Structures are given as structure tokens and as C-alpha cells.
Amino acid sequence: MSLKRLLVALLGVSLLYVGAARAELDENYSVILMTENFPPYNMATNDKNYAREENLKGIAVEVVREMFKRAGINYHMTLRFPWARIYKLALEKPNHGVFVAARLPEREKLFKWVGPIGPDDWVMLAKADSPITINSLEQAKQYRIGAYKGDAIAEHLLAQGLEPLTSFRDQENARKLQEGKIDLWATGDPAGRYLAKQEGVTGLKTVLRFETAELFLALNPETPDEVVQKLQQELDKMRQEGFVDKVLNSYL
């Protein structure tokens, strides 16, 4: 056999092995996806703090499901409580991921990221009749601020020298604001308004918009790059096709 034919034969064998390895990943690889009650992005159909697979709904749930389906990657999806727990699991356990998570500079190297899935502006909300007027977080320090324990917004406020009063469920802050237990509510927009409406609280006003974030799927850093790339490629296609905007508009 000539050298040229030998090289071609060896290349063919190599490609067969690569193909077999790739097929094995497609067939056996599975990602444990965890999320929380964070309407309108993720929520349980029964409003509980635990749900699995088809008992989840929301903007991100629909987008992530479609993304994994198109990529041909197996997954199991669970909604749990609290956020701090599932965030820690995704950080420490291979083949785990958590959504939706704000992609912040301090988190950048902790995960592998797929997204963005949707926007999440950070705002300070007040009651409609509140006289509070502020132009910065520094000015907000004089007020009682409610935030969601373990959330990126609460972490950001702490880093800026504020001391938010945290709750285990963000919607609790809507009631605290209405009852005068806090002066301002640091939350996401549109998520905060959606939660407030579910609690029967309306007429809140934005007194400060202090950050703009985008929400992602955060995968454990040991996730194979091939998996991350496949998911990102499919999400990009879904966005170009208008699928992501269609889902967003159906909830908002």
C-alpha cells in the first residue's frame, strides 16, 4: 500500500472513532437543569416551590426546552427552592446547570454560559404615592430596601455598601412595600411587576433604574465545550427565526 493510501485509511479510521465518540455523547450525555420560581421566566404550573419536567412553564423554560431539543442533548429539568441551593449545586456538580442567571463579571469564570435568554433590568420600585426621589444607589442608602436573598441584585447592593432586608421569596417584597415595611424594592424589570401583580399589588413606580443585565443558562465549568457550542448555536438560530421574541411576547 502506498503512503498516500495508508494515510487516507488511517484518517478514515480516526473519523470513525470520532464519530463513535460523538454518537456516545449524544446518546448518553444528560444535563441536570435546575431553576426556581422566577416569573415570568421560570415557574411551576401549580405555583409550588418544587416541580419537574412538564410541570414547569415560563419564558426561559420554553426557550431552554426547545434549545436542548434542537441540539439533541438529553436533560432533566427541576424547579427547586431556594435559589442559593441550586446555584451552589450547579457550581459544584458536573453535568449540572441553573437558569436563569445574570452573567456578571464576578461570575464569568465560575460557569460556562449559554444565552442571552432574556433581559433583566435592575430597578428600585416604590409605592405610587411615595415621595422618594433618588438618582443613585448612594442616595438609596438612607431608605429601607427589600431584596431577594441570594439573588444577583442583593449581592450587587451588598457590594455597593447597602444593607438590603432580604426575603426568601421576591414576591414577599411586594407585600412589604405595600404594607410600609420597606421603602424601596430592589428587583428585576419586568419580573418585579409581574410578581407584584400576582400578589394583587399594582401602581408601583420606578424611582431608579441602576443596572441592566441579561439572563443566561449557567452550566458547570466541566461541561464539554461541544455541548455549550451546540446549545449556543441552536439558541442563536431560534433568535434569528423569531422564536425567542414570540415566547417573550406571549408572557409579557
TrEMBL record:
Entry keyword annotation includes Signal: yes
Domain (Solute-binding protein family 3/N-terminal): give its ranges. Answer: 32-251
Would you indicate the residue range of the signal peptide? 1-23
Q: Name one Pfam family in it.
A: SBP_bac_3
Which Gene3D superfamilies does the protein's record reference?
Periplasmic binding protein-like II
Q: Which UniProt keywords apply?
A: Signal
Q: Does the keyword Signal apply?
A: yes
Q: Which InterPro entries match?
A: Solute-binding_3/MltF_N
Could you identify this protein by its name? Answer: ABC transporter substrate-binding protein
